[in-house]
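Narrative of activities, Objective 1.

The group set out to show that a structural description can be obtained from nothing but a protein's sequence at a throughput compatible with the screening campaign. Below is one input-output pair from the validation batch, recorded exactly as produced.
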Amino acid sequence: MAWHDEAVKTIRRSVFWTRWLHLLIGMVFYGVVVLIYPGTTGRSTAQVLTLGGAVCAVLLTAAAMIPGTRHAEGLQGRLLLRPEDPDAIGIAPSRSWADRRRTAAWLYGRVALGTAVGYLTIHTLSAVVALCAAPGRPTGPRVYGVSLPAEAGQLWYPLLAPVVLLLTLALVQLAGRAQLALAAAMLGASAAERLAAAELRAERLLERNRLARELHDSIGHALTVTVLQAGAAREVGAGDLVFVEKALGVIEDIGRRAMEDLERTLMLLRETPEAATTEQPGLDQVASLLETARAAGTRVEARIEVAAAQLPGVLSRESHRIVQEAVTNALRHAPGAALQLRIEVRDGQLRLHCANPLGTGQPWRQTRGAGLRGIRERAALLGGEATAGPADGSWQLRVRLPLRLGA
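Output recorded for this entry:
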């Protein structure tokens, strides 16, 4: 039968027994308190249980005030309750009064539920023995404090033992799930902690994206220029040694800058102290970018009407990266075509405008790759905007960035 097969599967799972053990530990704590507390001597059962519960509450409250209690309970919960997601039960010590209150609530619930399961376990074992031994006895079996008739159906009482046992196993399984849910609610991360963790993950993701953009822009630019210069030198060959020497010089220079950019990024990834003081290129180094483009055979017409010293540091650095990506795209997608660059300040904005003619020979292919996406992301993070596309017979990139960041 289906219910029988499910019951067999349940008791064969190790997690069922470890959760049962976890519940019984709570009952053992309550039982020990009741046995050793001297105030229970000479009192009725109801008074003993009530007084024992009060003493347990005091002891559990005191234990919850210890930061390490939350850590120990979390470790034990992960080991015995065995949640599918181990992080559902935290193992960090208490850091606030809210953590201590939640730890106390967990301890109260754990001991109360464990005591109920322990009571059920003990009386189920007693009931099973009584039912199996019922035939031939002059009195009826006593099950869960209730005396059954001595004659009617006494020979059939042993058949009730498996039913009682299976019902108890089902209740224990439900209690184990309830204990796990309580542990996740009380020992797991609070709403504030989950929000803080989500914010931390978002910050790390943004940082990784920023580093990815840095590598894409700097290394991509270096490789593009290197490929173009190497190709041009190979075509010229020994016929123009001056050009070849100049091309090799450009390759050496751009390779050195790429190594510096790579080392700077690696220091950020390693979070070394030097990373905080490492200077990143700003708008004042745009001239070297343009010289590299000219050395690669691109005619560059630049009009830069703003000094890097007039800009906030982050705006100057991001502007340099945007121009670097624009030059790289020009060299990659429109080699040999003229590049027009204009950088100016107007209406409280830093405006960058790059344009390439759309020639018939090697037109600038419209792309949706990482380069343009990175430019748009940089502009958006600074509160600005970036647009790119064909207009007036040329491919144009327009970027507007507010001078007052956050405005």
